[in-house]
Amino acid sequence: MSNYGDTPDDETPKDPYGQPPSGPPSEPNYGQPGAGAPNYGDPASSQPGNQPGYGQPYGQAPYGQQPYGQQPGGVSTFSVGDAFSYGFKKFQANLGPLIIAALVLFAVVAVIQVLQYIVGGGGETTIELNDDGTMTSTSGGMLGGSIVASLFFGVLSFLAQLAIQAGIVKGALDITQGQRLSIGTMFNGINWVQVLIASLILAVATIIGLVLCILPGLAVMFVTAFTLQFIIDKDLPAVQAIQASAKLVMANAGTVLVFFLACLAAYFVGAILCGIGLLVAIPVVVIAQAYAYRTLQGEQVAA
Q: What spans are recorded as compositionally biased (Low complexity) (predicted)?
Protein backbone atom coordinates (compact mmCIF):
# COMPACT_ATOMS: atom_id res chain seq x y z
CA MET A 1 0.00 0.00 0.00
CA SER A 2 1.44 3.33 -0.99
CA ASN A 3 1.45 6.33 1.25
CA TYR A 4 -0.63 9.36 0.38
CA GLY A 5 1.24 11.53 -2.12
CA ASP A 6 3.54 8.75 -3.37
CA THR A 7 3.96 8.47 -7.07
CA PRO A 8 2.85 5.21 -8.68
CA ASP A 9 5.64 3.21 -10.25
CA ASP A 10 4.22 3.56 -13.75
CA GLU A 11 3.95 7.33 -13.64
CA THR A 12 6.70 9.83 -14.17
CA PRO A 13 6.94 12.46 -11.45
CA LYS A 14 5.90 15.84 -12.61
CA ASP A 15 8.11 18.85 -12.02
CA PRO A 16 7.00 21.05 -9.15
CA TYR A 17 5.31 24.26 -10.16
CA GLY A 18 7.80 26.95 -11.11
CA GLN A 19 10.76 24.51 -11.37
CA PRO A 20 12.56 24.04 -14.70
CA PRO A 21 12.42 20.61 -16.34
CA SER A 22 15.24 18.18 -15.71
CA GLY A 23 18.03 17.68 -18.18
CA PRO A 24 20.57 20.03 -19.72
CA PRO A 25 19.31 23.46 -20.67
CA SER A 26 18.76 24.13 -24.32
CA GLU A 27 21.22 26.31 -26.17
CA PRO A 28 20.28 29.94 -26.76
CA ASN A 29 19.20 30.79 -30.24
CA TYR A 30 22.49 32.40 -31.21
CA GLY A 31 22.59 34.56 -34.27
CA GLN A 32 18.83 35.02 -34.36
CA PRO A 33 17.41 38.49 -33.93
CA GLY A 34 15.77 38.87 -30.58
CA ALA A 35 17.84 36.16 -28.81
CA GLY A 36 18.07 38.21 -25.65
CA ALA A 37 17.51 41.75 -26.94
CA PRO A 38 14.73 43.63 -28.72
CA ASN A 39 14.60 42.79 -32.41
CA TYR A 40 14.04 46.30 -33.73
CA GLY A 41 13.57 45.15 -37.30
CA ASP A 42 11.08 42.35 -36.65
CA PRO A 43 7.41 43.32 -36.34
CA ALA A 44 6.68 39.86 -34.88
CA SER A 45 8.41 40.85 -31.65
CA SER A 46 5.38 42.89 -30.66
CA GLN A 47 2.77 40.23 -31.48
CA PRO A 48 0.83 38.48 -28.70
CA GLY A 49 2.30 35.13 -27.68
CA ASN A 50 5.89 36.18 -28.17
CA GLN A 51 8.33 36.89 -25.40
CA PRO A 52 8.51 40.62 -24.67
CA GLY A 53 11.62 42.01 -26.33
CA TYR A 54 12.71 38.65 -27.73
CA GLY A 55 10.89 38.49 -31.06
CA GLN A 56 10.80 34.67 -30.91
CA PRO A 57 8.01 32.33 -29.77
CA TYR A 58 8.30 30.66 -26.41
CA GLY A 59 10.79 27.84 -26.37
CA GLN A 60 13.24 29.32 -28.86
CA ALA A 61 15.00 31.75 -26.54
CA PRO A 62 14.27 30.73 -22.92
CA TYR A 63 14.55 33.23 -20.14
CA GLY A 64 17.65 32.90 -18.01
CA GLN A 65 19.99 32.06 -20.89
CA GLN A 66 22.24 34.89 -21.96
CA PRO A 67 23.18 35.28 -25.63
CA TYR A 68 26.49 36.59 -26.87
CA GLY A 69 27.05 40.24 -26.07
CA GLN A 70 24.55 40.47 -23.20
CA GLN A 71 24.94 40.68 -19.45
CA PRO A 72 22.30 39.43 -16.99
CA GLY A 73 19.29 41.69 -17.22
CA GLY A 74 19.67 42.23 -20.96
CA VAL A 75 22.28 45.00 -20.65
CA SER A 76 24.52 45.16 -23.69
CA THR A 77 28.23 44.47 -23.21
CA PHE A 78 29.09 46.49 -26.32
CA SER A 79 32.05 48.83 -25.96
CA VAL A 80 33.66 51.25 -28.39
CA GLY A 81 37.09 49.77 -27.80
CA ASP A 82 35.89 46.25 -28.59
CA ALA A 83 34.17 47.46 -31.75
CA PHE A 84 37.27 49.14 -33.18
CA SER A 85 39.53 46.30 -32.06
CA TYR A 86 37.24 43.88 -33.88
CA GLY A 87 37.09 46.15 -36.92
CA PHE A 88 40.88 46.39 -37.20
CA LYS A 89 41.37 42.65 -36.68
CA LYS A 90 38.86 41.76 -39.39
CA PHE A 91 40.27 44.45 -41.69
CA GLN A 92 43.66 42.74 -41.50
CA ALA A 93 42.08 39.34 -42.12
CA ASN A 94 40.21 40.61 -45.22
CA LEU A 95 42.75 43.14 -46.41
CA GLY A 96 42.54 42.46 -50.15
CA PRO A 97 38.81 42.84 -50.88
CA LEU A 98 38.38 45.76 -48.47
CA ILE A 99 41.33 47.74 -49.85
CA ILE A 100 40.11 47.11 -53.41
CA ALA A 101 36.62 48.33 -52.51
CA ALA A 102 38.02 51.49 -50.88
CA LEU A 103 40.31 52.13 -53.87
CA VAL A 104 37.39 51.70 -56.26
CA LEU A 105 35.42 54.23 -54.21
CA PHE A 106 38.22 56.81 -54.44
CA ALA A 107 38.85 56.09 -58.13
CA VAL A 108 35.18 56.47 -59.11
CA VAL A 109 34.82 59.75 -57.23
CA ALA A 110 38.06 61.08 -58.75
CA VAL A 111 37.04 60.14 -62.30
CA ILE A 112 33.63 61.77 -61.91
CA GLN A 113 35.21 64.95 -60.56
CA VAL A 114 37.69 65.09 -63.46
CA LEU A 115 34.89 64.59 -65.98
CA GLN A 116 32.85 67.28 -64.28
CA TYR A 117 35.79 69.69 -64.49
CA ILE A 118 36.40 68.94 -68.18
CA VAL A 119 32.79 68.92 -69.33
CA GLY A 120 31.61 71.71 -67.05
CA GLY A 121 34.75 73.78 -67.21
CA GLY A 122 35.27 73.49 -63.47
CA GLY A 123 32.49 75.98 -62.89
CA GLU A 124 34.75 78.85 -63.95
CA THR A 125 33.02 81.99 -65.22
CA THR A 126 34.78 84.97 -66.79
CA ILE A 127 33.18 88.44 -66.74
CA GLU A 128 34.37 91.01 -69.29
CA LEU A 129 33.60 94.73 -69.41
CA ASN A 130 32.65 95.89 -72.91
CA ASP A 131 33.48 99.29 -74.40
CA ASP A 132 29.85 100.35 -74.21
CA GLY A 133 29.80 99.73 -70.47
CA THR A 134 27.97 96.42 -70.59
CA MET A 135 29.34 93.20 -69.15
CA THR A 136 29.60 89.79 -70.81
CA SER A 137 30.04 86.53 -68.88
CA THR A 138 31.49 83.36 -70.41
CA SER A 139 31.89 79.92 -68.85
CA GLY A 140 34.43 77.29 -69.74
CA GLY A 141 33.95 73.63 -70.50
CA MET A 142 31.99 71.70 -73.08
CA LEU A 143 28.68 72.54 -71.42
CA GLY A 144 29.74 76.00 -70.38
CA GLY A 145 29.75 75.19 -66.66
CA SER A 146 25.98 74.92 -66.74
CA ILE A 147 23.81 73.96 -63.81
CA VAL A 148 22.68 70.90 -65.78
CA ALA A 149 26.26 69.59 -65.89
CA SER A 150 26.72 70.13 -62.17
CA LEU A 151 23.48 68.36 -61.35
CA PHE A 152 24.27 65.46 -63.67
CA PHE A 153 27.68 64.76 -62.23
CA GLY A 154 26.44 65.39 -58.71
CA VAL A 155 23.78 62.70 -59.11
CA LEU A 156 26.29 60.37 -60.78
CA SER A 157 28.73 60.79 -57.92
CA PHE A 158 25.98 60.22 -55.36
CA LEU A 159 24.86 56.97 -56.98
CA ALA A 160 28.41 55.65 -57.36
CA GLN A 161 29.32 56.38 -53.75
CA LEU A 162 26.03 54.89 -52.55
CA ALA A 163 26.61 51.64 -54.43
CA ILE A 164 30.14 51.20 -53.12
CA GLN A 165 29.12 52.18 -49.58
CA ALA A 166 26.31 49.60 -49.61
CA GLY A 167 28.74 46.97 -50.88
CA ILE A 168 31.20 47.67 -48.06
CA VAL A 169 28.35 47.54 -45.50
CA LYS A 170 27.22 44.19 -46.95
CA GLY A 171 30.78 42.87 -46.74
CA ALA A 172 31.10 44.01 -43.12
CA LEU A 173 27.84 42.27 -42.19
CA ASP A 174 29.07 39.08 -43.86
CA ILE A 175 32.31 39.28 -41.88
CA THR A 176 30.42 39.45 -38.57
CA GLN A 177 28.68 36.21 -39.55
CA GLY A 178 31.95 34.45 -40.35
CA GLN A 179 31.39 34.36 -44.11
CA ARG A 180 34.23 34.47 -46.61
CA LEU A 181 34.56 37.91 -48.17
CA SER A 182 35.03 38.65 -51.86
CA ILE A 183 34.25 41.51 -54.21
CA GLY A 184 31.45 39.47 -55.78
CA THR A 185 29.66 38.65 -52.52
CA MET A 186 29.87 42.25 -51.33
CA PHE A 187 27.35 43.36 -53.95
CA ASN A 188 25.02 40.34 -54.00
CA GLY A 189 21.67 40.17 -52.23
CA ILE A 190 21.17 43.92 -51.78
CA ASN A 191 17.77 45.49 -52.32
CA TRP A 192 19.06 48.45 -54.30
CA VAL A 193 15.66 50.08 -54.68
CA GLN A 194 15.18 50.33 -50.92
CA VAL A 195 18.79 51.45 -50.44
CA LEU A 196 18.23 54.27 -52.93
CA ILE A 197 14.88 55.30 -51.42
CA ALA A 198 16.31 55.39 -47.90
CA SER A 199 19.38 57.32 -49.02
CA LEU A 200 17.28 59.95 -50.78
CA ILE A 201 15.02 60.35 -47.74
CA LEU A 202 18.00 60.71 -45.42
CA ALA A 203 19.82 63.08 -47.77
CA VAL A 204 16.84 65.43 -47.91
CA ALA A 205 16.21 65.20 -44.16
CA THR A 206 19.89 65.81 -43.37
CA ILE A 207 20.14 68.84 -45.68
CA ILE A 208 17.00 70.37 -44.18
CA GLY A 209 18.32 69.66 -40.70
CA LEU A 210 21.70 71.23 -41.43
CA VAL A 211 20.00 74.35 -42.74
CA LEU A 212 18.03 74.53 -39.48
CA CYS A 213 20.97 75.45 -37.24
CA ILE A 214 23.05 72.33 -38.11
CA LEU A 215 22.12 70.35 -34.98
CA PRO A 216 18.91 68.82 -36.42
CA GLY A 217 20.93 67.54 -39.37
CA LEU A 218 23.47 65.93 -37.07
CA ALA A 219 20.59 64.39 -35.11
CA VAL A 220 19.23 62.83 -38.32
CA MET A 221 22.64 61.35 -39.12
CA PHE A 222 22.90 60.03 -35.56
CA VAL A 223 19.55 58.22 -35.23
CA THR A 224 19.67 56.76 -38.76
CA ALA A 225 23.22 55.41 -38.47
CA PHE A 226 22.14 51.77 -38.90
CA THR A 227 19.59 52.23 -41.69
CA LEU A 228 21.61 50.49 -44.41
CA GLN A 229 22.39 47.62 -42.06
CA PHE A 230 18.70 46.99 -41.43
CA ILE A 231 17.87 47.13 -45.16
CA ILE A 232 20.71 44.83 -46.21
CA ASP A 233 20.64 42.43 -43.25
CA LYS A 234 16.90 42.26 -42.46
CA ASP A 235 15.59 43.17 -45.93
CA LEU A 236 13.36 45.87 -44.46
CA PRO A 237 11.68 48.56 -46.57
CA ALA A 238 13.34 51.97 -46.40
CA VAL A 239 10.94 53.64 -43.97
CA GLN A 240 10.84 50.65 -41.61
CA ALA A 241 14.64 50.45 -41.68
CA ILE A 242 14.89 54.12 -40.70
CA GLN A 243 12.44 53.53 -37.85
CA ALA A 244 14.31 50.41 -36.69
CA SER A 245 17.60 52.31 -36.67
CA ALA A 246 16.08 55.13 -34.65
CA LYS A 247 14.69 52.68 -32.07
CA LEU A 248 18.00 50.86 -31.72
CA VAL A 249 19.99 54.08 -31.40
CA MET A 250 17.64 55.70 -28.90
CA ALA A 251 17.60 52.54 -26.77
CA ASN A 252 21.41 52.83 -26.52
CA ALA A 253 21.77 56.59 -27.00
CA GLY A 254 24.73 57.25 -24.72
CA THR A 255 26.82 54.34 -26.00
CA VAL A 256 26.02 55.01 -29.65
CA LEU A 257 26.83 58.72 -29.25
CA VAL A 258 30.34 57.90 -27.99
CA PHE A 259 30.74 55.39 -30.81
CA PHE A 260 29.46 57.92 -33.36
CA LEU A 261 32.03 60.50 -32.23
CA ALA A 262 34.79 57.88 -32.33
CA CYS A 263 33.87 57.05 -35.95
CA LEU A 264 34.08 60.74 -36.90
CA ALA A 265 37.47 60.97 -35.18
CA ALA A 266 38.73 57.93 -37.11
CA TYR A 267 37.63 59.46 -40.41
CA PHE A 268 39.26 62.77 -39.49
CA VAL A 269 42.57 61.12 -38.64
CA GLY A 270 42.44 59.13 -41.86
CA ALA A 271 41.74 62.27 -43.88
CA ILE A 272 44.61 64.33 -42.46
CA LEU A 273 47.08 61.53 -43.28
CA CYS A 274 47.10 62.70 -46.90
CA GLY A 275 43.86 60.82 -47.45
CA ILE A 276 45.74 57.50 -47.50
CA GLY A 277 44.59 56.81 -43.98
CA LEU A 278 41.00 56.62 -45.24
CA LEU A 279 41.90 53.35 -46.99
CA VAL A 280 42.17 51.92 -43.49
CA ALA A 281 39.70 54.11 -41.64
CA ILE A 282 36.69 53.44 -43.91
CA PRO A 283 36.77 49.61 -43.75
CA VAL A 284 37.64 49.56 -40.04
CA VAL A 285 34.80 51.95 -39.15
CA VAL A 286 32.23 50.10 -41.29
CA ILE A 287 33.17 46.74 -39.73
CA ALA A 288 33.00 48.33 -36.28
CA GLN A 289 29.52 49.62 -37.15
CA ALA A 290 28.44 46.12 -38.19
CA TYR A 291 29.79 44.82 -34.87
CA ALA A 292 27.83 47.50 -33.00
CA TYR A 293 24.68 46.77 -35.00
CA ARG A 294 24.73 43.10 -34.08
CA THR A 295 26.00 43.36 -30.51
CA LEU A 296 23.51 46.03 -29.48
CA GLN A 297 20.74 43.64 -30.56
CA GLY A 298 22.25 40.71 -28.67
CA GLU A 299 23.21 38.87 -31.85
CA GLN A 300 26.30 36.70 -32.06
CA VAL A 301 29.37 38.08 -33.81
CA ALA A 302 31.79 35.66 -35.44
CA ALA A 303 35.17 35.58 -33.70
A: 47-74
